[in-house]
Write the structure tokens for this entry.
Amino acid sequence: MIKLENKESSRIKIYFLGMEEAAGPMWNGRTQGLFTGEYLNTFFTVDDNKVVSLLVGLGEAKIGITEVKEVVSKGIKVLKEKKVGECSIDISDFLNISGITAVREVVQGILLGDYEPPFFGENNKKELEIYLNGFSQEQVFAIEKEIEIGSNIAKGITWARDMVNMPGNHFRPEDFADEIKEMMKDTEVECEQISYEELENMGMNGLLAVGSSSEFPPCFLVFRYLAAPESKEITGLVGKGVTCDTGGYCLKPSNSMSGIRGDMAGGAAVAGAIYALAKNHIKTNVIGFIPMCENRISPGSLVPGDVISSYGGKSIEICNTDAEGRLILADAVSYAVKKVKVTRVLDIATLTGAVVNMLGFSTAGLISDNQDFFELFRNAYKTSGERYWRLPVYEEQEKMIKSKVADIKNMGEGHCGTITAALFIKAFAEGKPWIHLDIAGTAWVDPPLFEYQSKGATGAGVTSLYYLCSDGK
Ligand code: BES
Ligand code: ZN
Ligand code: ZN
């Protein structure tokens, strides 16, 4: 719970201090010079009125979106460690640095710092009570609005994290669909679940071929948030929803199995972003598409050498059953552009190990065939503070997925695997403006890289997709 407070009532206050401020007359005496204000350093002090202050260092660097979220999360985490459930935060510095929108970053810092993954046992998590102060009376209305906006974005992120953190045996494809339908009841979003039989009738053979490997059937969730009737633009967001990826017959080695439940993080990001857009009543048209399935071993499941057909009409040679994400995304992207007629399409997926080797855990891979759409997304991810890096696409890489027995094959040549995976999906986008995000590295962290993360799911993609569709607002 985050409230505004102009009187000073809490027994604990968090202050954020740069190095100069920490060394200045106001604080240096009270800290005996022991707190220098270095970035993310913390220190407790008590004043004459017995009010405890937690000091968090801002360092010397420029304070941007990432830093605001980090220092606030750090303060919250330190208090939680000490079992303190209530405090007030002076936000005046942040307002001075980046204006009123700083509030939504502060709010995200609070709620993400407080995040705990689902716990299967007795849960005694207490709700935090946070009071914000350090603003003028004229700012109250705008700040309350920003608290609302920031809370909804943070809820989109923490909900996405919750779904990705769920153990696979508690989160089958249909549980995933049910969870989204339940959550969206509270919004203007309309959900349509396409069942196994309908998938068969439609010839969604990419999704069916992968999903029939499990006793828990695949399904396809389409959810619409159409809040800008005057606009012709409809953005399709397609998210990979593999709730368990064992690799299939091309089985993953046991030491690569730990994160396999997280293979639906792209789908979770799409759901989280559309939830936040709807809760904040953003005027946009956006449709989410999540093909949901497991990738396991069964008597009839795919083996290398198989050939399947797809919803888009192309035949596909299966070279590796662990390259399942592109098969289900191909069908979903075809459905989005051919059947639903979205005007531009973005897919997001934990797609390749190669992107992790290339860019690590802080930066996701991006591929696009459209400069205007790319630039819109670049503005969005700059506003969100997430990191993406655009990879090149050339003809020689397109050649790598040519098959001798079918229209296309589901694997390249053992190098530039992130690019060939993306190009496979592009082949189903029918020339519509297209962006592909490979979040295999950024969706899951152990250990966390930033203070606003916790071990496990990060909610990667939620904020960038949000700002893409909200035009940065
Ligand atoms: N879900 C995995 C990719 C992945 C790897 C996600 C590591 C998170 C962490 C995907 O389905 C996969 O297995 N991709 C293969 C493709 C290969 C067989 C062409 C890969 O990257 O090894
Ligand atoms: Zn796989
Ligand atoms: Zn996968």
User: Anything to note?
Assistant: The longest helix spans residues 140-165.
